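cache lookup: miss for this entity combination. No prior model stored, computing from scratch. Input as submitted by user K.M.:
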Amino acid sequence: MTNLIAAVAGFAVLTAGGGWALSKAMPLEAGVVVAYLAGFLAFLWLVGGGPALLDWAHGRHTEHSVPGWTRFARFSLDHKVIGVQYLFVSMLVLAVAGLMALVMRSELARPGLQFLSNDQYNSVMTMHGIGMVVVALTAIVGGLGNYAVPITVGARDMAFPRLNALSFWILPPAVLLLLAALAMGGMDTGWRAYPPLATRGGVGKLLFLLAFVTVGFSSIFGGVNTLTTVWTMRAKGMSLRRMPIFAWSMLSAGVIMVMATSVVAASLIMTVSDRALGTAFFDAAGGGTALLYQHLFWFYSHPAVYIMILPAFGVVLEVLPVFSRKPLFGYTLAAGSFLGIVVLSFLVWAHHIFTSGMWDFLKIPFMVLTEMISIPTGAVFLCALGTMWAGRIRMRAPMLWAVGFIVHFLVGGLTGIFLADVPTDIHLHNTLFVTAHFHFTIVGGTIFAFFAGFYYWFPKITGRMAGEGLARAHFWLFSLGFELVFLPLFYVGAQGVPRHTADYPARFAGPELAASVGAFVAGLATLVFFYNVWASSRSGAPAGDNPWEAKTLEWTVSSPPPAENFASEPEVTDSPYGYGAA
Amino acid sequence: MSDWKRAVPIIGAMSAALAVALTRVLAAVHLMPGVVAAREAAIVDSAFAAVLRIDVLIFAVVIATLAYILLFFRAGAEGGEGKRFESSPGRMVEIAWMALSCVLTLGLAAYGSEEFLALRGSREAEVDVQVRAAQWSWDFSYPALNATPASLILPKGKRARISITSEDVLHSLWIPAFRLKQDALPGRVNTLYVTPLVTGTYEIVCAELCGLDHTNMRSTVEVVEPEEFEARLKGETW
C-alpha cells in the first residue's frame, strides 16, 4: 500500500506543484504538459515500475507476485493479479461515470434547468462519456482478457509481463487527471473533443486531452501483449482452429488496438500542440482545418467501437456452447467474421461526418462499406442462434446475460442502419437517436457481454459461486432500467432534440421522465451487482474446478488457478467445444 | 431434421405476429416529426420508412427464433447434452444466411444511394442565403436583396441555396421540419439546398456541441408564399 500512496502523492506534488512553478517560466499549458510528464513518470517509478526496471537492468529476478491482498496494490507481473486490478479500476470508473449519468438524468427529469448550469451539464456529460469509454475499453479487454486469455490458450502468463503491468499502471494517473480536469474548469466538448472548441477555454481541457492520450498508450501496450500472447504462447497442439473463440476475438481486437490507437493519440497530441505550443493544425485562421481532426479522430474511434464489441462477441460465443451443451456453431465463420470486421472497421469512419461538408460523392462508398459490416456481424448472430438450436439450454446467470446481449445488441445493430444510410443520417445525426443507438450497442453489447463473462469466470477468479438469485435480479432490473432509458430517446431524437443538450422542449417531458426513472432502476441494479460481488467473493458456495462443466483449459486447473497456471504444460488434442451427443 | 418440421410454422407464425404488432406500435408512436415541410423531408421520410420495415422484419424473425429456442430447447432438471450439428446441413445454413445478408445489404445500399441522389437534387437555386453561426446565435443575410432579417425566411416552392459558415467553433444548422442538417465550420463555406413546400414557421436547432449555451442556440425558419417573400424580407430588415 505504501508504494501506492507514495506514487499518488508524488504524482500530485509534481504535476500540480511543478505546473505552478513552471508556469512562472513558460506559458501555462506548456508548463503543465512538462509537469504532467514528470508526475506521470514519478507515479510509475514509485508504484513499483522503478524497482522492476532496475531488477531487469541488473538481470535480477523480479518477484512475479506476492501472497496476500496487498498484491493488488503492487506493480505485480502476474496476469491474474493484473486482470483483477483492471476489473477493480473499470468497476470503480463505471460507478463514478454511472453516478454522472444519474446526475444528468436528474437534471433532465423535467424541462428547464433544475440544479445544473449549462456549463456544469456539459462537463458532467463529457466526464460520463470518457469514463464509460474507458470502462468499455478495459472491462472485457483488460479485466477478463488479462485473466482468461493466457489460461485459455494454455500459457503461464502474458508474453510481456512487465509491459502488462505498465499498461495497467498507466491508467490511474489518467483517472486522477480526469478528476483534476473536472476541478480545473471542466471540459465542455464531449469526449470527442472537437477543435476549435477543444483548443479554447481553460486548463481543464488540456488535462482531459492528456488523460485521453495516456489511456491510448495503455491500450496500445495491451494490444501488443495480447497479440503476441495469442499468436506465440498457445499450448502444444492448440492450432489456430482449436483456439477458444474468445482468444480469436481478443486477437482481432488487438490488431485494431495496435493499428488505430496511434492515430487518435496523434490527433490529440496535435490538439495539445495547438493549445500549448501555438501550432495551427486545426485552426482555420492559421491555415489549418477543423475537419482534419474529425477524420483523424473517427479513423480511430470507429474501429475503437470494435475494440469494445469484438471481445464481447467472443465472450458470448464462449458462454453459449457451455450452457447450450452444444459445439460452437460455425466456428470458422465466427473467426472469419471477426477478421472481416477488423478490415472493414478501418474503411467506414466518415459515416460519422456525413453532415460535415465532406465531398458528396464520397458519402456513397462510405455508406455501402458501413452497411457491409452488417454481413460479418449478422454471421455472429447466426453462430449464436445455431449454437443454441437443438441444445439443452441451462439458463444460469452467464447464459441469461448472453441472451440479453443478443436481444439488445440486435436493436443496436438494426438502429445503426438508419445512421449508415445517408438520407436518414442527415436528419438523425447528432440527435438523441444516436445516443440511444450507441448505448444499445455498447451497453446492450459490451456491458451485457461483460456481465455474462464476469458471472462465467467469477467462480474461476474467486473460487466461489456468485449468488444466482442476485445475479438474476441484477439482470432483470438492469435490462428493464436500460430499456426504459433509451427506447424513449429514439423517439425524442427523431422528433428533433439534439444530443449534448441540458434541456429540451416541454412537449417531451413524458418520455424524458421515463428515461430518468429508467436510469435510477439501472443504478439500483448496479448496486445489487456490487453487493453480490462483495458478498459472494467472501461467502459464496465453493465453486470447485469446473462448476459449469466447460471444456476450455482454464477449467482444468484449480479455482483460483495456481501460480503460473499449469503444473505441467497442457497438451491440446481436440476442439475446445466437444459438447453434445451425436 | 425433424426439429425443423415443427419449428418452421411456429417461428413463422410468431415472426408474423411480432412484425404486425411492432408495425402497429411504431405507426401509433410515429417516430419522425409530423410536419413534412420540404421536398427533402418527404424523401428522408420514405427512406426512414423503408429501413424501418426491413428492421422490423429482421427483428421479428431473430426474436421469434430466439423465443422458440428458449421455449423448446431448455434442459430439464436432468440436464443432459445437446445435439451435435451434422456439418453438411450446418454448412448449407451458413451459406444461405450469408447469401441472404449480402443480398439484403447490397439492396439497402443501392436503395440508399438512389434516395441520396434524389435528396441531393439540383445544384441550381433561385434564392441565395448566407448563414453565419457564432456562439450562440445565427445571422442570416440575403446579399442579392440586401436584407438581414432576424430569422431565416424562404419562399415556398423555390429552391434555396444556403451557404453556411462559422465565426468561431463548430455549429450545425438543423431544421427538423426539413429533415436537413449541415455543419458550420470556421474558414469554410458549406452549402445546403432545399425546396420548402409548406408555409409555416419551423425550428432551427444547433446540432453540434458548441459550448456553454449550445442548448439554447435556436432560431426559426419561416416559409412564406413567393409573392410575399420580398416584402417580408424588407419588413424584417433592420
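stored under new cache key. DSSP finds four helices and nine strands in chain B.
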